Amino acid sequence: MRIKELAIMKQHLNAAINEYDSIGIITHKTPDGDGLGASLAMQELLARRNKKADVVLEEPIPVVYDFLDGERRTVIFSENLRYDLLIILDCHEKERVGRCEPLVPFSQKVFALDHHIQGEMIPDSETYLDTNTVSVGAILFKMFEDELDALPPESAQYIARAIYTTILNDTDNFLNANVDAQSFAICSKLMKYNIQPGRITELFLLSKPANEMRFIGEVLSTIQTFDDDNILFIDSTYEMLRRNNLEQEVNNKLTRWVKGTKNVKVTVCFQEVNRNRYRLSLRSNYINVNKIATKYGGGGHKKASGCEIKGNLDTVKQTILEDIREQL
């Protein structure tokens, strides 16, 4: 069931939080700074209501989230986990939940908060979607803003830092076209809790070791352009990761390194995740890349989406090239 008013969603969610003591929080597969930041913020909010909640992930949280104490605050999915109340953030589609999906049918209540384009909602869930808000973390802030001042300063600051991270993630440090007056207004309010935006940006986006920078250089060396440089492809392979002693998590946000390339209207990063299987990150201010992503079981936004495709890399690239050309 889709709930269209934030106040109603808050009312229903608060009632469920009061009713249930077994609470799990999950986000989409291959989570990003929005889903993870929002989940950690939600967990802290619940802790201050004397409610313990697990943030459940498919895999260990990347070390980049150490500044949010991510490892200590998260658990890894296992088949024996069960929760009466399940809160899903930055996702509302069953197929995008990934390996945590078995948690859904065992929960007595499921809530989903998201800002992506509406897809097939999880059956029997109460779902709130707001595609006009920059991140799901920003939705949480609008929902619980009136409670932050009553929290201990350290908790309010932690939540503000986590929510700022969600906005930083989904605007790519305020470079994306989704930045609007509301985005800056929320960030301005977050400053009240003594966050340090420059430090958060440094820790989340900039503090990369030399081997990761070498990896990024290798990825950039794969640049291919098509149609008078209107389309740009980059690749990330297992061999690149192996050479640089890195894990898959470093593939996050590779497209930011080619943002603003002259004449480019569509960017696609092809990340090798298994033999003949690639995870695609699609970015464009000119076409609806969500239309392409949903075609292959993915999703996201009109200007930023992702999916996974099986096949030979050259064949996959040709297929996506044809999809892009249909819109360009």
Instruction: Extract low-pLDDT stretches.
Output: none
N to C succession of SSEs: HEHEHEEHEEHHHHHEEHEEHEEH
What integer value in Å does the Rg equal?
19 Å
Strand count: 12
Structural class of the secondary structure composition?
Answer: alpha/beta
Order of the strands making up the biggest sheet: 3-2-1-4-5-6
Task: Look up the CATH topology of the largest domain.
Answer: inorganic pyrophosphatase (n-terminal core)
Describe the structure in your own words.
The chain is α/β, with parallel strands linked by helices and 328 residues long. The chain has twelve helices and twelve strands. It has helices spanning 6-19, 33-47, 70-73, 103-106, 136-148, 153-171, 181-190, 197-206, 210-220, 238-243, 289-295, 313-327, and strands at 23-26, 53-57, 74-76, 85-89, 109-114, 126-129, 224-226, 231-236, 266-274, 277-284, 299-300, 304-310. The chain has a six-stranded parallel sheet. Strands 7-8-9-10-12-11 form a six-stranded mixed sheet, with helices on both faces. β9 and β10 (277-284) form a beta hairpin. α2 (33-47) packs antiparallel against α6 and α5 (136-148) runs antiparallel to α6 (153-171).
